[in-house]
Amino acid sequence: MVKRAVTDIMPISLVRICRKKNQRGFTLIEILFVLGIIAFVVAITIPKLGRTLGTQLRSTTRKIITLNNELHSFSRIKNKTYRLVLQFGDAEHKGRFYVESASKKQLLAPIEPGPTPELTKEEKAKPENQDPFTPDKEMLKNPVDLPRGVNFEDVENETSKKPITEGKAYIIFFPEGLVEKSVIHLTDGNKIHWSLIVNPLTGHTDLETEYIKLKDLNL
After folding, report:
1. 201 in a domain, yes or no?
2. 8 Å CB contact between 111 and 172
3. Which helix H or strand E contains 71, and what residues bound it?
4. Which of 6, 33, 74, 100 lies 20 to 30 Å from 168 when distance is taken between CA atoms?
5. What range does the domain containing 91 cover?
6. What is the CATH number of the domain that holds 156?
7. Chain center to CA of 104
8. In terms of pLDDT, which residue wins out, 187 or 5?
9. Does the reported pTM lie above 0.70?
């Protein structure tokens, strides 16, 4: 005897009803339940991401503060001029900072805000265009990247006529123990607008969790 499937002996109308029940979509209650789960997960995840960014940013600012203190001390001990290079990020690269040094005292020259101009080989060969600073691996072995999503908002110092917002900015540490009066502004483009204030006499760097202009400081 040939065995027949159950659906073969069921009335056609009943088969159609069963198939419709098995192929029905989600009910409104089921959709709301899933959306509630998604909202719960998002509510938990977003604060964690915010805390992670805050932790990374605080770690980075501590590195800058510690590094500034070291540059201030070593400039006198080693009788060298150091500069902290602050490189702005763009669509392809993160913002970063690193250290360069020169073997003797260097004079401050006015800096025009904007990208560092590219010189030809002949122009670079001229003594007046030769940069006395070279990367200093002793003070900082490798450049330090800013956390993802964070960049230098601008840098203000006494040698620039306007806040520097692209290219590179420099904080100069002199052998006499003096530092160029400066403010480094960091931002995530939204809520974070931090200020790193460099004291010109002590080299100490203070962190303020708000945007403070150089002209408003009493240093």
Report:
1. yes
2. no
3. helix 28-77
4. 74
5. 45-105+113-216
6. 3.55.40.10
7. 32
8. 187
9. no
